[in-house]
Amino acid sequence: MSRQIRLNAFDMACLGHIQQGLWTHPRDNSLGYNRLEHWVDLARTLEAGLFDGLFLADVLGIYDVLGGGPEAALRGAVQVPLLDPAMLVPAMAAATTHLGFGITCNLAYEPPFLFARRMSTLDHLTRGRVGWNIVTGYLDSAARAMGLARQMAHDDRYDLAEEYMEVVYRLWEGSWAGDAVRADRAAGLYADPARVRRVRHAGPQYQLDAIHLCEPSPQRTPLLYQAGASDRGRAFAARHAECVFLNGGPKPQVAALVADLRARAAPRPIQVLVGATVIVGATEAEARDLLEEYRRHASVEGALAHAAASLGIDFDRYGMDEPIEAGGSQAIQSNVTAMRQAAGAVLTKRRLIDQFVLGSRQPPIVGSATQVAEALLAWVAEADVDGFNLSRTVMPEGLERFVRLVVPILQERGAYKTGYAPGTYREKLFGAGPLLAPPHPAAGLRLA
After folding, report:
1. Is the dihedral of CA 300, 304, 306, 310 positive or negative?
2. Cβ–Cβ contacts within 10 Å for residue 238, how many?
3. Contact (CB, 8 A) for 126 and 90
4. Which residues pair with 274 in a beta bridge?
5. Which residues contact 395 (CB under 8 A, 6 or more apart)?
């Protein structure tokens, strides 16, 4: 049997996520992003396809780097308007039994006490199917929205994150003992006060004196995702993350990143997922026709607005063939590095636009179901990735085609499950218990 591939759908509570402009396609249903039925239908489709999870991205600012303002983002619905992803999860969880939910939440602008309660609440309501994609943000517009002049420097944000993680671990793991809840009706005793502890923390960024407001949830600490690919990001991921999301790139470069992440995290197991965009047809010709049809709706302006914000570069200041200076930004450092590598010796706006196929810098995998399945298997074999975050294209047909055409072939190859394993999100992915185990730092803070 081949190694089994992990699959998430990669989405966002908005119209335009990664592939900018595709919401304008007449068969796309993204205009329903603000209705619960939209998300419940998506969750049911994913569970029918035995997806491991729905990975929900999020940002806390608007993309206002291109042209020095938000106009391009607003015109093209480039991740704006944008709902709170956590609010969608209970409805989707009620409509499914096994699907996991990875929620992106920015730790930089919310007190850890409030955030810890929200995640414990979701872990209870989903019966242990919630994960947290740990991010520190990259938009100055988010910092200004929070009353700050600008965001913290890249590495300083990771210093902040390290302290934040200690605080939430202590709340989730160290405030209530596993046997604190008695629920003894006859004695009128719900929780044993002797088995509940106050968490006290006094650090450079956070001060806390509190008892966690939630009793222990099925996973206590949610399943932990992280997407940093810079050197500092990989160090953070190796210490904290269970699943790491990489944007992609040439297979040898991704393989080197994966090897580095696994070596840094050892002996703790991690799973690495790479971003992928798939256009699949019954035949290769049908898939190519679909690609050309979709391309007619892709937005170059939207893609530039998205890239400008994630790279910290205003492309409107450059002519089409003028060399672009890429450096000194506090945006996503790994994106800057990847862009330089993809563009070659000299980065220009024309070269960047040439990379846009479906309104993003991510080249799609296009082909018949067999060709797509073989391409995914090649990534696993050559880059040692565990699975994929499949980016939204035209919805719902893109995912429905994948479930109908590609999933059966992966199952025939023994590379994809034919049923869900029991248990929590963590148990399904790692086959161990519902709680984090040593040597993860959270495990060492658990109240015995």
Report:
1. positive
2. 19
3. yes
4. 246, 388
5. 28, 29, 30, 42
Residues with Cβ within 8 Å of residue 59, at least 6 apart in sequence: 79, 82, 106, 137, 139, 142
Residue of 235, 58, 54, 59 lying closest to 131 (CA atoms)? 54
Can you list the domains of the chain with their CATH numbers? Answer: 6-178+191-445 (3.20.20.30)
- Convert the pLDDT of each residue in 371-405 to its tens digit: 999 999 999 999 999 999 999 999 999 999 999 99
What's the pLDDT band for 328 if we cut at 50, 70, 90?
A: low
Cα 403 from Cα 413, distance rounded (Å)? 15
Token representation of residue 33: 């992003």
Q: 60, exposed or middle or buried, with CB in 10 Å at 0-12, 13-18, 19+?
A: buried
Sequential DSSP letters for 386-399: -EEEEEP-STTHHH
pTM of the model: 0.94
Nearest to 365 by CA among 352, 384, 353, 378: 378
